[in-house]
Amino acid sequence: MATSTPGPSPQPLEKEEEPPQGSPAEHLSVVSKLCYSIGGAPNQAASSAAAFYLQLFLLDVARIPAAQASLILFVGKLSGAAADPAAGFLISRSPWTRLGRLTPWILGCSPFLALTYFLLWFLPPITHLRGLWYGAFYCLFQALSTLQQVPFCALTMFLTQNQQERDSATAYRMTMEMVGTLIGATTHGLIVAGAHKAPKCPEANLTDPLLAVASSISPHTRQLYMVAAGLIAGTYPLCASLLALGTTEEDALYILEQRRVPFFQGLGLTLRHQPYQKLVASFLFISAAVQVQQSYLVLFCTHAASLHSHVQSLVLLVLVMVPSALLLAAAPSAPLAYVVALASGASIAVASLLPWSMLPDVVDDFRLRRLPLKGLETLFYSSYVFVTKLSGAGALGISTLSLEFAGYESGACKQSDKVVVALKVLIGAVPTSMVLIGLGILSVYPITEQRRQETAHRLDVLRKEGSTSSHPSPSGAQGGAAGP
C-alpha cells in the first residue's frame, strides 16, 4: 500500500510538457492572421476616402458654406472623440460571450456603419438643411467607427499571449489597413474623378459669386458619389464576418489572482503612465498634421494649383509614401508635386500605423508595473483615439474656418488670391510645424528595444506561472488556490 502513494506524482510533470492555453508556445495560423487583419480594412478605406474627399464634397458638391463645413468637421470629430472613453468603458464591462468580448462589438457595428457611411455621401433634396444632414451622419459615422475600431485594435492583445505571434498579427493588420487606405482613397477618387474636371471660368470678374458659381450639380455627379460610397460601405459587413469566422478570442493569464478597478480610476492610471503620455503627445501633433494635409490636398490641387487632372495620382502617391509640403506650396507645378508626394508619403503611413504597433508595448509595460490589475487594455486604445481625434477636430475646425475668413465661395469657378494663400499655408507651414513638434516629443520616448524585450520576457514567466497555478494537480488544488 505504501508504494502506491507516490504513483500520481509523474502526472503534473506530463501536463507541464503540454503548452497550456495562452502560453507563449501557442501559434496563430496564417488564416487567423489574415481574417483578423481584413477586419480593419473597411474603416481605413472609409476614413481615407473621407479624409481626402469629404471636404471637397461638402464645399463644391453639397454647396455648404465653409463656416458650416468647419462646424460639421469639428463636431463630427468631437463626437468620435467623445465615443472613445464610452467605448472603453462599455467594452471593458461587456460580458464574455461565445464569440468573446470584443468580436460582438465589431459585428454589431458593421451594418450600421455601412448605412451611415453611404448616407454621408448622399445629396438630400432639402437644400437649406444639408448642413444638419451631413452633420448628423458625420457624427454618427465617427461614433460608430470608434465603437468598432477600439475593440478591433484591442483584439490584438487577446488573439494570443505569444509576443512574437502578436507582433506578427499586428504586422498583418498594419499591412491590410494600409491596403484598405490605398484602395479606399483610390477607388473613391477614380469613380468621382469625372465630377471634378477643370471648369471653364469666365474671363471677366472671376471671383464674383454671381458670375463664378458653377452650374447646378448634375444627376451624374450624384450617381458617381453614391456608387463610390456603396462600394466601400459594402465591405463593412463582409470583412467583419470574415474576422468573426477566422479568429478566436482568449482571456489573458498573467498571475493567479487579478482584480478590476473602477473606470475613472483605471483611466487615471493609464493616463499617468509615462511612456503612454509621451506616445500620445507625439502622435497627437503628427496625426493632426496628417489630417490637415489629407483634408486640404485635393482642395489645394483644385483651387490653388490647377492640378485637377493629377488629383487621383497625387493622392495615391501620398498614401504610398507623406509630403514635405512646403516645397509643393512654394512651387505648385505638376512635376514637383509628383516628386514631393512620392518622397514624403512615408509620413502618412508612419503616422497612421506606427502608434498602433507601439501601443501593445506600452500596455505590456503597464501590465508589468501594475499587476494584478486587469481589464484596462481597451482604455489605452480608446484614450489614444480620443486624444488624436480631439486634436484633429480642433485642427480641421480652425483650418476650415480660416477658409471662411479668407473668402472661400462654395461652388465658385475660381477662388480669390487670399484663399489660394490660405490653402498653401494649410498644406505647408501648418502640418510641417506640427510634425516637427511631434518628432521632438517622440525622441524622448522611454521604451527602448532592450526594455521591450525585458518586459516581454518577464510577462512570459508570469504567464507560465499563472498557467501552471490555474491547472494544479488534484492533490495540490486547494493549496494552489489558497496560496496568494
Please supply descriptive tags for the structure shown above:
22 helices; single chain; 484 residues; mainly alpha; 71% helix; disordered N terminus
Give a written overview of the molecule.
The structure is a single chain. This protein is an all-alpha fold. The chain has 22 helices and no strands. Helix 6 (130-154) runs antiparallel to helix 18, helix 8 (163-192) packs antiparallel against helix 14 (311-320) and helix 13 packs parallel to helix 18. The longest helix has 30 residues, at 163-192. Mean pLDDT is 75; it is low at 1-25, 203-215, 253-257, 322-332 and 471-484.
Q: Secondary structure elements and their pairing?
A:
Layout lengths: L9 H8 L12 H9 L2 H21 L4 H27 L10 H18 L9 H25 L1 H4 L3 H30 L16 H4 L6 H15 L1 H12 L16 H9 L2 H30 L7 H10 L4 H6 L3 H11 L1 H24 L7 H30 L10 H11 L1 H14 L6 H22 L6 H6 L2
Helix pairs in contact: 2-8, 2-11, 3-8, 3-10, 3-13, 4-6, 4-18, 5-6, 5-10, 5-11, 6-18, 8-10, 8-14, 8-17, 13-17, 13-18, 13-19, 13-20, 14-16, 17-21, 18-19, 19-20
Low-confidence stretches: 1-25, 203-215, 253-257, 322-332, 471-484
Rg over CA atoms, rounded to whole Å, is 26 Å
Shape descriptor reads globular
The share of residues in extended strands comes to: under 5%
| Helical proportion, percent range | over 70%
Largest sheet: none
Order of helices and strands: HHHHHHHHHHHHHHHHHHHHHH
Q: If helices are DSSP runs of H or I spanning 4 or more residues, what is the number of helices? A: 22
Distance between the termini: 34 Å
> Which structural class do the helices and strands define?
mainly alpha
Annotation, overall tally of beta strands: 0
Mean pLDDT: 75
